[in-house]
Model the fold of this input.
Amino acid sequence: MEQHVYPPAAQARIQGMEAYQALCAEAEADHASYWARLAREFLSWQTPFTKSLNDSEAPFFKWFEDGKLNASYNCLDRHVQAGKGERTAIIFETDGGESRKVSYAELLALVCQMANGLKSRGIKKGDRVVIYMPMSVEGVAAMQACARIGATHSVVFGGFSAQSLRDRINDAGAVALITADEQMRGGKALALKGIVDEALDGGVCPTLKDVIVYRRTGGAVGWVEGRDLWLHELLQGASSICEPEWVEAEHPLFLLYTSGSTGKPKGVQHSTGGYLLHAALTTSWTFDLQDSDIFWCTADIGWVTGHSYITYGPLALGGTEIVFEGVPTYPDAARFWQMIAKHKVTIFYTAPTAIRSLIKAAETNDAVHPKHHDLSSLRLLGSVGEPINPAAWEWYFQNVGGGRCPIVDTFWQTETGGHMITPLPGVTPMVPGSCTLPFPGITAAIVDEMGNDVPNGTGGILVVKKPWPAMIRTIWGDPERFKKSYYPEELKGYYLAGDGAIRSADRGYFTITGRIDDVLNVSGHRMGTMEIESALVAHTELVAEAAVVGRPDDLTGEAICAFVVLKRARPTGEEAKAIAKELRDWVAKEIGPIAKPKEIRFGDNLPKTRSGKIMRRLLRSLAKNEPVTQDISTLENPAILEQLAQAN
Ligand code: WT7
Done:
């Protein structure tokens, strides 16, 4: 296949391959000192640390452990104190298209008021607070307010169901929940508070005392006296000065639930010092964020991308960023292009799935093509969440970036806290579809099942050999699962990312080949097949058994395909359609609309080995509508394959 190579930018903070190699060499020579130098340069410490890495309890690593700092101080106060209080921190744009600017001084005042409000409810350092908020200044401020008082936030994406919200509140043992009356998306008001009420109905979250409600739309809400309180009432009379709580570097800044290959979603625990360092550092080196930039990360604060590249990274550097409430397709699919032109965005960071859907929209309706908008302010583009296919990369490069903006294809994960493998704009010649080279100090490598390095050009398992400051500290409440998931014994103490990868023979560039576990990536959203299976079999009236696999999808990357055995006879025709719809709606209610299977096929049984194990690799072929070519000699019921090969 012909491969295009695109040159890096002429000018960026880290300039030239030699500068990159010098940083890598510095880290290689003394890993702990390298990170300590950066932690001193990028963060302000109330108590300077004297220790860098503590690996005495590996894989429970500690960084900068005797230092104390506060994340919100680093994101707000220090800029105001440096005379940058009038600088715009956030340009907020509503779903409906109104925008307003919030300065650093204003954001600091709001965060302090919120922090004081939380304190007045008895919320203190170490408490967990769940945030279930729309994209808003108040959502970002709620996270910062928790950080300010040392409370550990756990943001739950507004698209998750009542059941998912309840599970997360209980797993975290949260004492308070911050939410909104409604959220506006695509011109529609969605009842967030209604979902909260459903989640809490019947006193099923015993640790939760307060529900704090931000009034976004003024829509009608249910109210539980003694439990619910309005945010604006809590803020009334609250002082806009709040001394930050200085916390140890290892103090948990947040939990963020994400899907694994088995069991329930896991609460990924992040530290304050190491995490904030990497959020700030990567925003500086990967995005080259300067004071003159308008930065826009389109992610939701409910995902890690929104944490690192909305709430923490850009603010830690004193940058100016867009926070957008709405969706890319409202009022039409030119919304992103229109907003880039309106706000003169210079750095734009989005997901391949959004790009692919906007390509499709522009192909079917020329009026929403980016060429109708002035995108000349852009100087750097980014991609995140899933592999970007070369065709989408080229389109993004030419039609959005005007052929002049480098694209940073950033590979990372909820667990890694920030970018792990990515081009740097002034350094790395880009090859579409490849996330290129490790961030300086990140010891990414590709190994076989025993942890031995494989040569370039040979695919294998992606690992990170040495710990890094922003890494996951543990799974909340389940250290054993942490060890088992990320540090399996056979891998020589390397961090297991869960992805497959290959390095090119010529440049040693990394390309991610996809998850090697039962985790799916649908539109950049991470989902466990087991979670969806559990949701399906929870429909005890209808479902006897279910198996879920992913299949490639042009638009969403992967699509969810479920094979279901009902408690009644296998349905066909209209009945099958009706039951499939009922089950899809059921999954949306159990987990959230993002987990709805794209296709459900019914069988009298599932393909199993004689020992009763479901043969998922066969299901993967069936889902792709490919002939089954695998060895089926161990399959107990070969006849089932023909049945499951039929779509309903
Ligand atoms: C999984 C992590 C990273 C923040 C958003 C997703 C996939 C992520 C890339 C990329 C290829 C990517 C991996 C990874 N992934 N970025 N640039 N190229 N794959 O975070 O929900 O924790 O998902 O997303 O499979 O393991 P997440």
About this structure: Residues 573-590 form the longest helix (18 residues). The two ends are 37 Å apart (CA to CA). Residues 147 and 286 are 25 Å apart (CA to CA).
